[in-house]
Write a structure and sequence with these properties.
Length: 92
C-alpha cells in the first residue's frame, strides 16, 4: 500500500469525468456506503492485517495505510474496530 496515491472523492470524480455529487451517488448505489467510509474501512482492514503480521509500530502502520497523523489514524481505527490499534494488537 505504500506507494498508492490517496485520491480525494473530488479527484476520483474528475478522473471519471463526472461531478463529485453524481460520482458519490453512483458509488453509494453500487457499494452501499460513501466513498470516504469505504476508503476508511479498507485502510483499517489493511491496518488490522499489518498489526497481526508485522512488528511495525502503530505510527508506521498508520503511514503505510495512508494516515500522516498517528492520532487521527488511531481515532479512525478505533471508530471502525471498537478498540485502539494497540489494544487490537495486544488482543491478538
Amino acid at each position: 500500500m505504500g506507494d498508492r496515491r490517496n485520491y480525494s472523492p473530488e479527484e476520483l470524480a474528475s478522473i471519471v469525468n463526472l461531478s463529485a455529487s453524481h460520482t458519490a451517488s453512483l458509488f453509494r448505489s453500487a457499494v452501499g456506503t460513501s466513498i470516504t467510509d469505504y476508503i476508511k474501512h479498507q485502510r483499517c482492514a489493511k491496518a488490522r492485517e499489518l498489526l497481526m503480521t508485522t512488528n511495525y509500530s502503530v505510527t508506521q502502520i498508520g503511514r503505510l495505510v495512508g494516515y500522516s497523523d498517528p492520532l487521527y489514524f488511531s481515532r479512525q481505527f478505533t471508530s471502525v474496530n471498537g478498540v485502539s490499534p494497540r489494544a487490537f494488537r495486544a488482543s491478538r
